[in-house]
Amino acid sequence: MPQLNPNPWFFIMLTSWLTFSLVIQPKLASFVSPNPPSNNSPTIPNTTPWTWPWT
C-alpha cells in the first residue's frame, strides 16, 4: 500500500511548510495595511427617535 509509505510525501510537506514559513510569510507580513487601525474611540451619533404618524 503506497499510502502508508511516508517517504516522498513527508519530504514534500516539510519542504512546502519550510518554504512558506521562511520565505513567503515574512514577505506577506511586510506589507502595510491600506487601512491602519486608529486609536480614536468611535463617535456615537446623536439620533432622535422616529415619530411614527400612526401612534
Kindly list the characteristics that best describe this protein.
ATP8_metazoa, ATPase_protein_8, 55 residues, mainly alpha, single chain, ion transport, 1 helix
Q: If you had to describe this structure to a student in words, what would you say it looks like?
A:
By secondary structure, the chain is mainly α. Helix content is 42%, strand content 0%. The protein contains one helix and no strands. The chain has one helix at 7-29. The protein is elongated, with a radius of gyration of 27 Å. The N and C termini lie far apart (77 Å). The model has no long low-confidence stretch (mean pLDDT 81). This is ATP synthase complex subunit 8. It is found in: Mitochondrion membrane. Keywords: ATP synthesis, CF(0), Hydrogen ion transport, Ion transport, Membrane, Mitochondrion, Transmembrane, Transmembrane helix, Transport. One of its GO terms (molecular function) is proton transmembrane transporter activity. One of its GO terms (biological process) is proton motive force-driven ATP synthesis.
